[in-house]
Amino acid sequence: MMDAHWTIIILIGAVVGVVVGTIGTSGAIMIPLLVFVFGLSQTSAQGTALLMASCPLWIAPMLVYARANHVEWRLGLLLATGMAVGSIYGAKLAMQLPTVFLKRGFALMLAAVAVRMFFQR
């Protein structure tokens, strides 16, 4: 892991926070950052990103969207319920898979989403 001063780590987190508040995603940004900047393994990056996601820090920017009536509460809460159950099985599966498979799978998922969004009207 990169041995960075805590202020640098917080500054990087703040930059990611601005991006997350702007485009609404964290794992797609944080996981590569943890791997390439901080030198974590793919599985450690995924676990660390999940730790950050479990903190209630995304409530504040979500409230900005909620005040503008851009939160689908029922859909979001139902999806979160399914994610809570499915993520347990996904985490157990990730512990059994080779790291290269996880990295490539993550990269392919990001690329597929990026291509679809780029060509969407």
UniProtKB/TrEMBL annotation:
Q: Which InterPro entries match?
A: TM_pro_TauE-like, TSUP/Inactive_protease-like
| Family the entry assigns | Belongs to the 4-toluene sulfonate uptake permease (TSUP) (TC 2.A.102) family.
Which GO cellular component terms, listed alphabetically, does the Swiss-Prot or TrEMBL entry include?
plasma membrane
Give the transmembrane ranges: 7-37, 49-68, 75-95, 101-119
Name of the protein described by the UniProt record: Probable membrane transporter protein
Q: Where in the cell is it found?
A: Cell membrane; Membrane
Instruction: Indicate the principal place this protein occupies in or around the cell.
Output: membrane
> What keywords tag this UniProt record?
Cell membrane, Membrane, Transmembrane, Transmembrane helix
Q: Provide the topology term for how it sits in the membrane.
A: Multi-pass membrane protein
